[in-house]
Write a structure and sequence with these properties.
Blueprint: H1 2-19, H2 43-46, H3 61-64, E1 76-84, E2 94-104, E3 110-120, E4 124-127, E5 133-137, E6 140-151, E7 156-168, E8 180-197, E9 200-214, E10 231-241, E11 246-257, H4 271-282, H5 286-292, H6 300-306, E12 308-318, E13 322-330, E14 339-348, E15 352-361, E16 372-379, H7 380-386
Antiparallel strand pairs: 1-2, 1-16, 2-3, 3-6, 4-5, 6-7, 7-8, 8-9, 9-10, 10-11, 11-12, 12-13, 13-14, 14-15, 15-16
């Protein structure tokens, strides 16, 4: 049984890494490196189908939209989250995420923030061609970032984030595999305004976040470079108070990877011509790739629309302390076919907030299917008052 677990671990860990690098059988698929950057790290957004560009600001905003930090009521806060991966097969593949923020300035209209994510693929025994044990390797993907956000008007805030990314899949038996390093930035904006729906004053949120704009990354000492998962996220939310104690929030996000599509050989195109065209795409700079990504699908406009994923979520809150969530995420079958429902709950006190989420996949496979995730947030002012 132990050997079977090791075999499965090798297989699925390898599939996860190679999914970002190797060609897929789907036409026009957008392929990137460091896919862990796209994993929702927290249970609040995860419980609503992975939405967060325009949800009410929270301690997890660094991933979804760092501009939201400027609208937080708390002066400082921190979070930690744990997301198991392929839980049904192995036990030590997981994403660990931590973030924090601090507000300052006139009327505390500015904020600095930081986060670190570490995706561990666990300990994998490496063998030579004869099947003899050589070493134990621990592949991982890691990112550390710092951010700054500021209110530019009473209702709008902008934010920027700088990120360092590192991956290490290196092994003792393959000298061509090296650690990869990259740098990236996020540009975000968030608008929060009160609107009247009938006689009820509600909150309308609009947000965007263009993330991972940066260099390419190489895992073979610069011989081959791969695109980061540069992504454009647009979101809207409406928070509607049912009465003095009960509120209901409707949230929706749209996502599109700003990375060139994988080229597909055309009818009548020679192998050499196709190889040259594919090489040209691989050599495209990351900035040029952003602009090309809006019109390079082999399937034309229909293909570009299929590259857009959407998610929608609901959040019910009682007295802003007890929260229930639900959502749905949809991705085209030709782009990965991730389709799932998610559910979640939260409990909020003056000093901390605990959130949980559970995912149920409706497609053939999902690494997070039937996985329970937890996030814990801390209000530093609340903690300080608690221990006075």
């Amino acid at each position: 049984m132990r050997n079977m677990k090791v075999t499965n671990k090798y297989l699925f860990s390898g599939l996860f890494m190679l999914a970002s690098l190797a060609a897929s059988g789907q036409t026009g698929t957008v392929v990137t490196a460091v896919p862990s950057l796209s994993i929702a790290p927290d249970a609040r957004g995860g419980g609503m189908g992975d939405v967060g560009a325009a949800t009410l600001p929270d301690y997890y905003s660094q991933h979804w939209n760092p501009a939201k930090h400027a609208f937080l009521e708390s002066k400082a806060g921190a979070t930690v989250s744990y997301t198991p991966w392929l839980r049904k097969i192995v036990q030590d593949i997981a994403l660990v995420y931590a973030s924090g923020f601090y507000k300052f300035g006139y009327e505390e209209n500015q904020a600095v923030s930081a986060s670190i994510r570490y995706f561990s693929i666990g300990d994998i025994p490496e063998t030579n061609l004869e099947g003899q044990f050589v070493s134990m390797i621990s592949p991982y993907e890691m990112a550390f970032d710092i951010g700054y956000s500021r209110k530019l008007t009473e209702t709008f805030a902008g934010g920027v984030t700088l990120r360092y990314i590192r991956t290490d899949y290196s092994t003792a038996t393959d000298e061509n595999t090296t650690a990869g390093n990259a740098f990236a930035a996020d540009i975000a904006g968030y608008n929060e305004a009160y609107i009247n729906i009938g006689s009820v004053e509600s909150i309308l949120g609009l947000g965007f976040n263009v993330s991972n704009i940066g260099t390419k990354i190489s895992m073979d000492d610069g011989n081959t470079s791969y695109f980061l998962p540069t992504n454009m996220r647009l979101g809207a939310s409406l928070t509607y108070p049912l009465d003095e104690y009960n509120t209901l929030a409707f949230n929706v996000d749209l996502n599109k990877l700003l990375v060139p599509s994988r080229p597909v050989q055309k009818d009548g195109e020679s192998d050499n011509d196709f190889a040259d065209r594919a090489e040209s795409v691989r050599n495209t700079s990351s900035i040029s790739g952003i602009f090309k990504s809006f019109g390079d699908s082999p399937d034309g406009f229909k293909g570009e629309l299929e590259e857009i994923t959407w998610s929608a979520g609901l959040e019910y809150a009682y007295n802003n302390q007890f929260l229930l969530r639900g959502g749905y995420y949809n991705e085209s079958q030709r782009q990965g076919n991730r389709k799932y429902f998610s559910f979640g709950a939260g409990f909020k006190m003056s000093a901390f907030q605990l959130d949980a989420a559970y995912l149920i996949s409706t497609a053939d496979s999902n690494p997070l299917d039937q996985t329970l995730r937890f996030s814990l947030g801390f209000n530093m002012e609340g903690l300080r008052n608690l221990f006075k």
